[in-house]
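cache lookup: miss for this entity combination. No prior model stored, computing from scratch. Input as submitted by user K.M.:
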Amino acid sequence: MTKMNYTRDNLWQIEEVGFDSRYLGKTESIMALGNGYLGSRSATEERYPTEQRDTFVAGTFNKFAENEVSELPNVPDLWWMDFIINGEHFSLEKGIVSHFSKRLNLKNGELIREFDWAFGTIELHFIFRRFVSKKRRHYLSSFVTIENLTEAAVNIQIRSGIDGQVTNNGSQHFYEGEKGLVDGKYIQMMPQTNESQIDFVFTAGHRIKAENVRERIEMGRRQIFMNYFFDLPAKGTAAIEKRMSIYTSIDNDHSDREVTAIRQRAITEMEALEDISFDELLQESAEKWNEMWQKHPIEIDTENFEDQLAIHFAKYHLHIMTPAHDERMNIGAKGLSGEGYKGHTFWDTEVFMLPYFNFTHPDIAKSLVTYRYLGLDGAHKKATSNGYEGAQYPWEAANPSDGEVTPVWGAADIVTGQSTKIWSGFIEQHITSDVAFGVKQYIDVTGDKEFAEQKAYEILFDTAKFWGSRLEYNAENDYYEIKDVIGPDEYKEHINNNAYTNYTAHWNVTYALALAKELKRSQPELFNHLNEKLGLDAVLDSLAEKVDKIFLPQPTEEGIIPQDDSYLEKKTIDLTKYKSADSVDGLFHDYNLEQVNQMQITKQADVLLLLYLFEGLFPHEMKLKNFEYYEPRTTHDSSLSLSTHAILSADLGKLDESYEFFKKARNIDMGEYMKSSDDGIHAASLGGIWQMIVFGYGGVRMIDGQLRIEPHLPKAWKRLTYGFDYHGESIDVVVTKESVELTKEDNGNNVMFVSNGETYSLKNKLLITLEEV
Ligand code: IFM
């Protein structure tokens, strides 16, 4: 029996108690370690057939074969250790396991696994500790203690090394490369990715605390390891410490590109750390973590302690998954915690994760939006190959200039028995306005003028240019429409005039026109420069002719905004069974996508996301009606759905309902369901946890360049403390049911914001009384 165990006494710890090898995936993902440069699932040291051992280095994409898309390769495994005790292979699947605990300290990133293991006459207590350094991005460390609980000595053999036999579900991305022992101390392996030709250097060194240890090196195909043999006396304790590092030829913190030089660099680092203990290395990493935790901490005063734990969990993961060090890289939909979605970046970044960074770590946000600027080449390539102009962003992105990398074939179709075609890479086009929206939010929140002038405006014009060429004229109705798309609701393919797509495209074009007007007036030189680069004059004339004729689906007599041209005519079915299930693929055990396409079944917030992101466009009453119409038809099969519902329902004053969504949303990965996270954590939902708290209940929003703060706490919360950065000012907020108190240093610019129709100017301290909701 295994289960997740969370306690009110430790709001920084997630723990699994009891071992069951059927559910390894859960903690491998939710207890993943990392530092944004690398991320690693917390697979056990010893092996199990049901495990998924993955370690990824951000941005090291490789395309294994011509007919595959590029993906983040699962790099050789460093954590691996086998224990052979009195000739018996140690495994938790045999013998008696007691007091099993696997726990992650979210505060300092240390993973601990401990248990007693009894097998025949053997009785041992094991403690495994490990971390990925936040201070030294290349560095990983593991420390294992074995205590003999019996009166008889046991013979121990430990095999520990570097294993390059791991694959991405069968795709082996590496040429084997050289391997060997250096200075009699460190083992190294130097594989190279077969297509992108990135060189990797893996190094590992061991220290054993035991008497009379004999050692022997061994190599196998793509493997190098050390064997250590010793006797552990009665009641004695032994320990093995493994120090590891990963470097690549695309690292941006050193200029070495040749393997020999990188090898030497890795050895030099190992040697430099010789006199620093495991605990000291952990401590310096913890100090780096602490810097992050001190930035805008969130405190929730509530009996429901899991709410507080959830924001610690979300922030921990948001930081280990984000390659903040390198603007050529972005966040994968599963972070660096699993092979799901191949490490690719989606709109999840702009709509779900970027807001957290915009408001709390603008430097990281800048790197994420710069990635999209570097992606303009890939976006041009995609637009041109589809016969369009401007920048059409790829639905799934890997290296910024790669263009589209969405795979074409997916899961089995239960009716035809064939693979289902994944149309998103061809027709899920709202990503282009999502990127524009994200970039605009970044400049609005940070006030980063330099980025705006040098990069953001270009993206905003180039994406509008794409929409200008994408719009189709409908002569019968004298409007421009967008046909044959997939909206956020991916259960509807090849539909016309998806409301979210049309409205966001309209916003993109409208904003570009307004920007051009403003730049011509205030920064003519900059406008001329962009005009020369993008041929804006011609584009803007054509956009100006089209913009007012872009078809924006209007509410029906009942006030419902049609999700697309045909949605409201489709039949409805009872979704209770699917909405209440633990897993999200139930619908496809009964229907294929073709059939789901014919029903009013929505996978995730679509119209409702539009109402949330562009709230100023729609009156309260209309939002309410649409919420009540669409939510019952939504299965929330995408982890991107619940947070939007939580925020929108909070905006609508449905705080009890909102809090139910909140609880479900915070449990997507953390919850009891032990198969939830097998393919990796749900990155967007973690950004969603922050948004639900700060946007939903803290009431912060950036609307049309205007900061708004209208908090409303759920019943279960007495007080919420949070903070954010805005235009270089750091603001602390304390919300209770009665009031909101805002504080900032009295030495910068005043911060202007609106709250319930009033405009405020925050100089230093401000107390606003809230009406009871
Ligand atoms: O981007 C999402 C999409 O909206 C729903 N399917 C999963 C993708 C990656 O998270």
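stored under new cache key. The chain has a mean pLDDT of 97.
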